[in-house]
């Protein structure tokens, strides 16, 4: 986790981006095995082409997992209070996912200081693949 002082976090604070390796077939096969999501459009080129895709592409939930990893690089998993995302694009082979986050609100619930973040995952061209929000406890 990054070291930060929770009292230093202000609205507008931007988390350090998390840049991940380019999506490749091995990553997709490993994720399929780990998640149990063996949808052929993610692992079978012929099937993907029949579905009118140029090639296989990443599972949407893989990008959600990357956003989870991004958040736990900033706060402990136990401090995540909510996570909500919306899929906005397909992550193709060769895309380099990068996760971003920015504090958009600070508030308190039952004496616990919390931050609401705007989060997103983009490719190397800046095209958004996921957008969402997360709320974390700042302890």
Automatic annotation (TrEMBL):
Source taxon at top rank: Bacteria
Organism: Pseudomonas izuensis
Domain MaoC-like: 23-94
Entry protein name: MaoC family dehydratase
